[in-house]
Amino acid sequence: MAQKFLYIVEHFVPFPASEYGGLWTVIAENDEECFDLIADYDDEQYPQHYNQLRENIMKCSTFALAEDLESRVVEEFTT
User: Does some domain include residue 16?
Assistant: First the structure.
């Protein structure tokens, strides 16, 4: 059972899907899984913004989880 983390990631999503971007809350084992979950959830509509997403994941707040929860996008908030 691998350690899971809660990621709070800022991710730009361009208009018309979002006006400014948003905040993503993700449960993942590592940065790469977090990236994959956001990219899959975002349906890879904006791959030109994924280099910034990787950087944002590396510098975002993460919190170790006490339970082994399913890896997933918990919440996506875009404006």
Answer: no
So what's the pLDDT on residue 49? 65
Specify if 77 maps to a domain: no
Q: How many domains does the chain have?
A: 1
Say how far apart CA 38 and CA 23 lie, in whole Å: 11
Q: How confident is the model at residue 53 (pLDDT cuts 50, 70, 90)?
A: confident
- The reported pTM is 0.83
First to last CA, the chain: 36
Domain hosting 50: range is 1-7+33-62
Q: What is the mean pLDDT of residues 32-58?
A: 80
Strands, DSSP E only, in 1-79? 5-11, 22-28, 61-64, 72-78
